[in-house]
Structures
1.
Amino acid sequence: QSQDRVFNFAAGPATLPENVLKKAESELYNWRGSGMSVMEMSHRGKEFVSIIEKAESDLRSLLNISSDYHVLFLQGGATTQFAAIPLNLCKIDDSVDFIVTGSWGDKAFKEAQKYCKPNVIWSGKSEKYTKVPSFDSFEQNPNAKFLHICANETIQGVEFKNYPTPSNKDGILIADMSSNFCSKPVDVSKFGLIYAGAQKNVGPSGVTIVIIRKDLIGNAQDITPVMLDYKIHADNKSLYNTPPCYGIYMCGLVFEDLLNQGGLEQVEKNNIKKAELLYNAIDSSNGFYRCPVEKSVRSLMNVPFTLEKSELEADFIKEAAKEKMVQLKGHRSVGGMRASIYNAMPYAGVEKLVALMKDFQVNHRL
Ligand code: PLP
């Protein structure tokens, strides 16, 4: 990567592929001979319509999304989906099931309480959110409208490696994939709905992607704001109102780049290599560094770790910053460090971090 760039380990907004940023820069003033920036285009003009259609089509190729699903480009972040999902899929008295493996699943559950009757059927809270349950250790409510999971908990670094089968009568599994979206292949047909904020793996903040099975739209509660009604957005191809045009354009460039890399199988291989390098460094440090997450469910994307001598954490973060590695401070709710190593983090960035960890350990082990 270029000398003037840092290795940015932020959890989101997060680092984007340098070649994508350069391409956007080259098209900034005059998008492909249109004489306009994408920021200046009518969202109903043929130029922008071609941009959003290509973004959707490339995303469909990447995730192999069938025509049974709508792909929606929305606003309001994943947080808005915490409300939109129950508003669209439930009546106020319907029960739904949540497996809560971290802070985001908990937030989704709490928001759902306003619009339906959610139950937490398993929570990892008492074990500080370091686990994913085995699928025979909880009981689903057969009358639940859906089963909700957070596929990757960004703060705690806990990731589902496979998915529970929903036993509710409509077989609807819903996943928040904000922080591992497009990081590996996913069998979309197992889900009723997948949602993700773009700002970790696929673009800038301001775009939220919803992939929803077509038969699940059209039954929103009467109080549903028009902006949260999936049917309105699906009927209008995400152009009911002015969408986040520039963000959608950037997501499109990222999707194209992921396809050029060889698709999500290849992307996953790269992510596994990076994550292994970092987890191995932690695990082989004789306890100097620690990752509290159970090994089998450690996230490929967000790697939380602590120092045995926690008083050295601020020094570690300072030394990293001196070497142009930034945003390594852990989330305020868990402390320690967190390295987010999304798709766009180069292998060289993780190598550099691991080299610092080794040096730091040598210099600080008395
Ligand atoms: N869900 C997960 C897993 C997240 O990591 C985040 C992010 O920051 C959110 C939801 C909330 O996303 P947003 O800030 O886009 O509303």
2.
Amino acid sequence: PLVLGIETSCDETGVGIVRGTELLANTIASSMDEHARFGGVVPEVAARAHLEALTPTIEQALETAGIALADVDAIAVTSGPGLAGALMVGVGAAKALAVALDKPFYAVNHLVGHVGADLLRDDEGDLELPTIALLVSGGHTSLLHVRSLTDDVELLGETIDDAAGEAFDKVARLLGLPYPGGPHIDRAAASGDPAAVRFPRGLTLPKDLEKHRYDFSFSGLKTAVARHVERMRDDGIEVPVADIAASFREAVADVLTKKAIAACVDLGVPRLLLGGGVVANARVRELAAERAAAAGVSLRIPPLSLCTDNGAMIAAIAAQRIMAGHGPSPLDVAADSTLPVTTVQV
Ligand code: ATP
Ligand code: MG
Ligand code: FE
């Protein structure tokens, strides 16, 4: 089926067009620049930007795919989780399109979409299920056991405070690096010593592992970095940005990959899929590859354009549902900012 997917859960206005698992267009407009001076995504600004960007982004995606709107078999949209106002723009537009074109409407879970992004790559063999999936972005840090992309996703664990990307952004800020901080920390870390400071690994003590085996926590780490930097400044020592960036990045990459591989081993699922913007991180990729190989786990990392928020992954999930014979979502589905990942069929 030819599906147009709309994604507006955060700061990317994404419109994707797929035919089954074939990627025809993946057009993105980002309002990132407008949030930079606030040091984080401002919900009102994001919603307004979606409203302005959506029509031109749809037009551009259609042009790239070389199709007309009337050719589309179904309209898909992220209905949650995400920023409420931002989601509402996409959901409203998708419903209007579906009604106007008399096409079926599919509401898609954003996190399931991130897993489905892997279906669209043409550089590797097919995604095999079940798989463990680690989704790490500015808003999410979730470890999933995915048995089916159309109806069976289990949440193994998630962050109990900050998301991994959020931690990168906050630590970048206190090191005086620009927003979004992830890429800047990654770059600074390249010339630093990851063993310079042993920062805490959240929720990895034996007592934590009982209740939070697959959960994450990054706010303690962020505080530890802040204290360390403050102490140096108080003592008049110049802050070694590269060493701190490298040590912080090491702590994040260590916990993320250790828990993800542990889930693969514990559950006997020898496959790990990564998704979300933090997957761009060089050390996360390197350590994931190293540990996956050591544990006999096959690692999949889609290209970055499919890892970050996009509409194509949303269209891909709707296409899976159509191919599995599932009917459309009711037109009264509302945007749900806290939609749980286990709600696979919205
Ligand atoms: P959502 O959480 O809803 O998916 P988002 O816009 O926060 O939305 P992405 O666009 O997937 O998510 O990812 C952006 C995040 O990824 C930011 O927090 C950014 O700092 C982080 N990031 C990007 N590149 C890197 C990198 N090289 N290393 C670490 N973090 C990175
Ligand atoms: Mg983003
Ligand atoms: Fe996302």
